[in-house]
Design a protein that fits this description.
The protein has 267 residues and is an alpha+beta fold. The protein folds into three domains: 83 residues, no CATH class; 81 residues, Alpha-Beta Plaits; 88 residues, RNA-binding S4 domain (Structural Genomics Hypothetical 15.5 Kd Protein In mrcA-pckA Intergenic Region, Chain A), CATH 3.10.290.10. Helix content is 24%, strand content 29%. It contains nine helices and 13 strands.
Length: 267
Amino acid sequence: MALQRYLMRPDEIAPNGAFTQFCGPDEFGNHWDELLSRRMLKGLGGGSPAPRKVMLHLMPPGKGDKHWDDAAIRLALNEWEDAGRRFPLAWLRVRQAENENGKETLTPREADHLSGKLAEQGMPPALVGDILRQGDETFLLMDTRQEEQVRAALARSGMTGEKQRDFTPAECMQETRISVGSPRLDAVVARAFHIGRAEAKKAVTRGFVALNLRIARDASREVIAGDLVYHLLAGAMRVDELSAGRTEGRHKLRARIPVGAKLMARG
């Protein structure tokens, strides 16, 4: 099946399941219905509380023990840190190798281009799950099964990576509060990512916006608390609270946005 190209072992699904490489909503969304109908999805692991990519745990057909509707995905996102320990994931603190200027930390611009720079060195984007910034430091989520390849790509790019066992992605989230006239997806995207309503609606209908890890093309769909809203070209946002505002017809939205770096567009 087409999904096989995302597996680490493309020849078969191991009897005890198989972890995929990192996939974005646009990459595995088309296979979601197939996974559900064949009861193959066991779990998922992400990066931050608002992951832009996730790693899937697939089971042999008919062995998956959960039905992955929106409620199940919201629950998984809430519990990703516990679930993530069962996945082959690790965070690396990425720094420049020693140089004549003595500069070690990556600038925000360098962090923004990190994924693309590593891809130029032959590292598939599917090995990078997320990139976050905490202060001046840059952290990369990697697939530990491919650690040698990741480190080699970093070295060729003049960088080093140090494993961070105590890194807490939640500390890289900024809280934001906004007011929206409607909980519609296009209205929330427009306010959250500072774009026009018409542009937001176009982004949704053209497949550039994901809701709870799946591409959502219905601009009128309403967002609720617990949802993960992800504009593939602008960033991610986790909705913590959505309630009626003091002004009639307005809604208050409290959310968290990761202080991250850009991943390769739709990659």
